[in-house]
Design goal:
This protein is of the alpha/beta class and 338 residues long. It is 45% helix and 12% strand. It contains 14 helices and 8 strands. One of its GO terms (biological process) is L-leucine biosynthetic process.
Length: 338
């Protein structure tokens, strides 16, 4: 299997960040210690640790963390012999000060995430990360929701700020393989930095879409062991590694160890098995942010509204990550219309 970029293919394991959504941000220090220890032993390249909504996300709006994320980051760093710890930062939720604190605790990489049309708010955070000596990557969320030329324009902005890679981020799990191919190819032809890809499995296409991204030149790839992530989860790490090995790509990550830790370390801490159910399928169909699912289910129960109707309406209104407060408003409006 070949790609159109000379950089090595690298995996960022996101089960301890994206997976935070799936456990209502209730990871304990011991759980993080156990997962990171096993991932490091298996040879994982990067392990992302933060609140599901990134640094500073532990709020009433996004959900309170059981344990302060800085404590979890420090715990994760202490367990790593080979892997590097990464964090996510969404400007407006996380701050430069929180980024500096995470760096002081040993985080080596940050993905600065913005809505696909708002790359300009990432400039300060990317520049500070580079000054700190961190790897600084751009993360364009809800990449399906903007025309390709807008995606390219925003990626160029992130690269100009110093981003060493820019991600096509399928936050809603709404992309089809042809959508991925078009977007990754367009970025590959427009920027000189690396291209990344982050998938969600709401339409059962996460592995297929990730393979398509790799074929088009993406070299920074996100995945989640046991599919632990928001919605129907992300590209399943152990499945992706198996498929890549079938294609002759060995990333230096022990497949059997990944299988074992999925079964014996991650599975026991999962609140529920990520699956393509009516809620997550509705998210992929409507094209809404994957972390909206639990919020929509709670609001639906409160107001007696089918969560799918809430998600579809949020998609119609083009709601984006960070607008979780809109979910209750939409549910209340739909209840009044009954």
């Amino acid at each position: 299997m070949t790609t159109s970029h000379s950089a090595p293919l690298r995996i960022t394991e996101v089960c301890l960040r994206d997976g935070s959504h799936a456990v209502a941000h209730q990871f304990t220090t011991q759980q993080v210690r156990d997962v990171v220890n096993a991932l490091d032993d298996a040879g994982m390249h990067y392990i992302e640790v933060s609140h599901g909504d990134g640094l500073g996300g532990s709020t009433l709006q996004y959900g309170r963390s059981r344990v302060d994320e800085m404590e979890l980051i420090e715990t994760a760093v202490a367990e790593c012999k080979r892997s590097k710890i990464a964090v996510l930062l969404i400007p407006g939720i996380g701050t430069v000060q929180e980024l500096k604190t995470a760096h002081s605790l040993g985080a080596k990489l940050v993905r600065v995430a913005t809505h696909v049309t708002e790359a300009d708010v990432s400039a300060q955070h990317i520049q500070v990360a580079r000054e700190l000596g961190m790897e600084a990557l751009g993360f364009l969320m809800m990449a399906h929701s903007a025309p390709v030329e807008v995606l390219v324009e925003q990626a160029k902005l992130m690269e100009s700020y110093g981003a060493q890679a820019v991600y096509v981020t399928d936050s809603a799990g709404a992309m089809l393989p042809e959508d991925v191919r078009e977007r990754v190819r367009a970025l590959r032809n427009a920027v000189s930095c690396e291209i990344g890809f982050h998938a969600h499995n709401n339409l059962s296409l996460a592995v297929a879409n990730t393979l398509t991204a790799i074929e088009e030149g993406a070299t920074r790839i996100d995945s989640s062991v046991r599919c632990l992530g928001a919605g129907s989860g992300n590209t399943q790490t152990e499945a992706l590694l198996a498929v890549l090995q079938r294609r002759g790509v060995d990333l230096g990550i022990d497949l059997f160890k990944m299988m074992d830790l999925a079964e014996h370390v991650v599975a026991p801490i999962m609140h529920r098995v990520p699956e393509i159910n009516k809620g997550s399928l509705a998210m992929g169909f409507a094209g809404v942010y994957s972390s909206f699912l639990l919020h929509a289910e709670r609001a639906g129960k409160r107001f007696g509204i089918d969560p799918r109707s809430i998600l579809i309406e949020l998609g119609r209104r083009k709601a984006v990550g960070g607008q979780e407060d809109m979910i209750v408003d939409v549910a209340a409006e739909l209840a009044k219309q009954k």
